[in-house]
Specification:
CATH architecture of the largest domain: Alpha-Beta Barrel
CATH topology of the largest domain: TIM Barrel
Bound molecules: phosphoenolpyruvate, magnesium ion
Strand order of the largest sheet: 1-8-7-3-4-5-6-2
Shape: globular
Number of strands: 16
Length: about 575
């Protein structure tokens, strides 16, 4: 057996299958000029490629099974919209017409200039939107090379796809064709393809440098999507070891369905709240079916994306009202806009900062741009008459931000009353603790807020100075770093002392590797992507919280000492 590669595991799950090397998107595009008399023909060729890419995406969309999550369909819709975007259609046409460039080269130049803009954005989610540009361009380039239909015909059932990178569209189609797993050279855990792989349950490892050169088409591979490991030439003992894991995982998933409707309690009956993180209004269906106690994080950024201009108050209101009514009494925490520093939307011009992750983002941006923020606050207050709603502020770093937001909310209520519009008088206001300074000042925040939610995705990024989407430094992204554990414990204790609820809505909250420790620290509210709810519930039902509390106390006293690792292992084994 040989160890073929190590990357970032982005999904739980193991797969065994033969390698299928995908050559898509790997052609080198070189400068090409065309004869002036052929310019019109080249423009027509480019337009035909756009139509062909559109047809291919429509056909993928039609093949998506009915029960597929709506955000997956949304990926395709986004790409279809982009195929109508002037930036991707008109600009390359002008480059062909005015500069005499070949279609492929004109498109490549425009892609590079768009990607540069996305690279300067600080919000990790928005930065991954550059993937969309690359994926759509890839579709057009494929059409220009007239290769798409050939590849559609291939039988990929049970195959492990090896590729430099994959588009969300490819991922959906391949899942439909029954692929076992995929491995890519590029990508981080926050890329769209990674998000899709997780929600579709495809074992995958990304960020494995050179893997398409190391492995041969057709060879048998083992892909461990949790550990981020790829094995080739596995002997029969290794294969049966992994095969056993696959069977066990299938059994477990079926068993977990029986947990729906059961109360979430530890072994000694300590009640734990399991909440869902949602992004699109349609996520409410799965949240309801899986029996989440609440929506602990509703990311509202999606309302602002893939569109011209900003949503107005009515659009905000109608969206929130539909979500609240759809939840039918399940409480929801709506997070105010968490846009990145240099995202340009109509009516809100924000200059790029040289260090965007530390720049004008989230609440900082909202306080600076009241015209953008006001409609959202008005809409949330109005929508809150339709069900239990809390407001949550992202990226807090000081108390002035809380006070300013409270003033805005007070004034907004007065304005709504003057406009004779119904609104919720009492609406809890909470804050996300995702900046180390806020975690260290959690006691002060607890006195002024109604609840706290720990956003570990950013808290880890800022505490350890590790960009959460950068595959180069991803190995440093350690949720169990003593500094992170101290900060989490500080926040939980601050909430306890002030008598306000503390939840966690970062990825850590839905991961059974960390749940026992978090229970030991006193956390009782966990919010996660809906797909993790039953896995977390199964873990929680098996925990002995008083034992974990004692062990965790010991650990927290010994953080960073040699016994730290042993104690940590013990805690993780206590379930
Ligand atoms: C977080 O930072 O942990 C979080 C939940 O927010 P987001 O991932 O949307 O930045
Ligand atoms: Mg965050």
């Amino acid at each position: 057996m040989s160890f073929a590669g190590n990357g970032i595991g982005i999904t739980r799950g193991i797969a065994i299958g033969h390698a299928h090397l995908l050559q898509r998107g790997t052609r080198e595009i070189t400068p090409r000029n065309i004869d002036p008399v052929e310019i019109q023909a080249e423009i027509d060729r480019f337009k035909e490629a756009i139509c062909c890419a559109r047809r291919r995406l429509h056909s993928i969309r039609e093949k998506i099974p009915k029960n597929t999550r709506s955000d997956i369909v949304a990926f395709i819709d986004t790409h279809l919209l982009m195929l109508n975007d002037a930036a991707l259609v008109e600009v390359p046409i002008s480059l062909i017409a005015e500069q005499g460039y070949g279609a492929e080269w004109a498109l490549e130049l425009q892609k590079e200039s768009l990607v540069k803009v996305f690279d300067t954005m600080d919000d990790p989610y928005l930065r991954t939107r550059k993937d969309d540009v690359e994926h759509v361009v890839n579709q057009i380039q494929m059409a220009l090379h007239e290769q798409d239909e050939e590849e559609d015909e291939e039988n990929l059932t049970g195959k492990v796809i090896l590729a430099q990178d994959l588009t969300p569209a490819d991922t959906i189609l391949m899942r439909h064709q029954g692929i076992a797993a995929f491995i890519t050279e590029y990508g981080g855990p926050m890329s769209h393809t990674a998000i899709l792989a997780r929600s579709l349950g495809i074992p995958a490892v990304v960020g494995v440098p050179g893997i398409t050169r190391i492995l041969r088409h057709g060879e048998l591979l083992v892909v461990d999507g949790e550990q981020g490991v790829v094995l080739a030439d596995a002997d029969s003992t290794t294969l049966s070891y992994y095969q056993r894991h696959i069977y066990e995982a299938e059994d477990q998933a079926n068993r977990r369905l029986k947990l729906i409707g059961k109360p979430t309690k530890t072994k000694e009956g300590v009640k734990v709240s399991l909440m869902a993180n949602i992004e699109l209004p349609e996520d409410i269906e799965v949240t309801r079916v899986l029996g989440a106690d609440a929506v602990g994080l509703y990311r509202t950024e999606f309302l602002y994306m893939n569109r011209e201009g900003m949503p107005d108050e009515e659009e905000h209101y109608e969206t929130y009202r539909a979500v609240i009514e759809g939840l039918n009494g399940i409480p929801i925490t709506i997070r105010t806009l968490d846009l990145g520093a240099d995202k340009q939307v109509d009516g809100c011009t924000v200059t790029a900062s040289c260090n965007p992750a530390l720049g004008l983002r989230a609440i900082r941006l909202c306080l600076k741009e009241p015209k953008m923020f006001q409609p959202q606050i008005r809409a949330i207050l109005r929508a809150a008459v339709h069900g239990p709603v809390r407001i949550m502020i992202p990226m807090l770093s000081n108390l002035q931000e809380v006070r300013k937001l409270k003033t805005i909310i007070r004034e907004t209520k007065r304005a709504l009353a003057a406009d004779n519009l119904p609104f919720a008088e009492h609406i809890p206001i909470g804050g996300m603790i995702e900046v180390p300074a806020a975690a260290l000042s959690a006691d002060a925040f607890s006195r002024e807020l109604d609840f706290l939610s720990i956003g570990t995705n950013d808290l880890i990024q800022y505490t350890l100075a590790v960009d959460r989407v950068d595959e180069e430094v991803n190995y440093l992204y350690d949720p169990l770093h003593p500094a992170i554990l101290r900060l989490i414990q500080t926040v939980i204790k601050a909430g306890e002392n002030a008598g306000i609820p503390v939840s966690m809505c970062g990825e850590m909250a839905g991961d059974p590797r960390y749940i026992p420790l978090l229970i030991g620290m006193g956390l009782r509210e966990f919010s996660m992507q809906p797909g993790s709810l039953l896995i977390a519930k199964e873990c929680l039902l098996s925990l002995n919280s008083s034992k974990l509390t004692k062990q965790t106390r010991k650990l927290m006293k010994r953080l960073g000492e040699p016994r730290h690792e042993t104690l940590l292992r013990k805690i993780c084994k206590l379930h």
